[in-house]
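Extended Data, panel c. Modelled sequence:
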Amino acid sequence: MLEGSILQQLADAHKSGQRPLRFGVYYKNTLVALCHALEDSILTSNTAALMITAFQRGKWYLQEAERYGEIAQKSRQIVIMAAPDSGFGEHPTSKLSNVALVGLETVDPVAQEWHLMILSPSYTAIVLCQELSPADYGPEGPPEEDRERKFYGFWTFEPGLVLETVELAIAHIDRYDPELQKTLTAQVQAITAEAASAEQDNLGEIVSRVVEYLHNSQEDLTAHEIAASHHEELDLNLVSNELQAFVRMAQLMELANTGNPMATAEVAALAEVMGQLLDLPAWQLKRLRLAGLLHGLVPLGVKAVTDLEEAPCCPLEPGVQALRGMPRLQAVASIITHQTEWWNGSGTPAGVGYDAIPLESRILGLTAHFEYRVNQLAKESENLSREEILSKALAECQAQANERWDPKLVETLTLLVMGLQQGLNLPITPPKVTSGMWLLNPPLPAESKSYQETST
């Protein structure tokens, strides 16, 4: 990473923490579609946003200036950082009262970055990327096709990271325009104050827009003459980001519900090991792990229905509805949908019971509830040891065997808990952002943390 860049500063700030940032490589065509989807979500937002962007060079901003003119109508402020080119400050959008240009020095590391930061009381998102250097491309060198240019970085909806990044950007802007820095600082303070009472935007709709734009970009590839190998790489990069969008939504929903940023990774690890103890085939374990990472798309704690005739016929949460937009994830969507069924048939959404509930759904429901209770008990009972917390959460599950949970799965969970109490390290691996079907790739040993380490 370039020394002094915003990406490098944010990465360094999280290097020694419990949640180091995880980066991936993105093609330009992927980033264009992703940024357009996130930017256009401002147009339907409940509140006005502060948007800060870095375009590398002014000519890239000029390609987006018309769109930005429309977005400015729904924004409280737009800031564009770029190394000035001819016409950078002459476009009509640049003359709007709430649009500010920051001409970066060519030696400024931010002039090599591609950033999008959106901060509003009801919607937050960031895309932080740095273009690969010529040496990073290897012997073949940089690509001739513009859409095949590669960038290193990450993106997220997480409000805390978005706010932290915006503050780094504002500090950088202070070098060029102290007055703008003061204005932006005041706006951030106002947005932070308003966020507590603002109605949050529908994240499911935003993710659906991301998937739609990425899918359209995928179809657009066929209209261009690109080498077959490169076409496949671009296509996989788009698919990867579609999956990332859902994982990020699930993580954010779990963070809001539990306060635990590692909840999705913990559930995925628990579910996968449960599957291993049940001797499930590899393809089913991978599907179960993916369902664990996405389980937060359906809120936990759904109560049993007292009258099966009143039970809705499989209504879908917005997040799961968006997930079904990807044909390859329909089976995973079904697993997630039915995780709230009860063994005795009194659960939701379908009111099915016993073996009619998909096995993966039964495993996911049990492990997600167990992980949730472990974290709740850890917060509520500071005087309890780790082993006592595990025992108490397990006892609650055992008390509901034959009613809410499959009794055989409770027995398997008992074996797993005994192992954890005796020192078993359950690898907790945050989703790895790489090309292709990255969610299904096995973790590297160095990237794994134990359940005991991350759940305290």
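Confidence is low (pLDDT under 50) at residues 300-314, 432-456. This feature is highlighted in the accompanying rendering.
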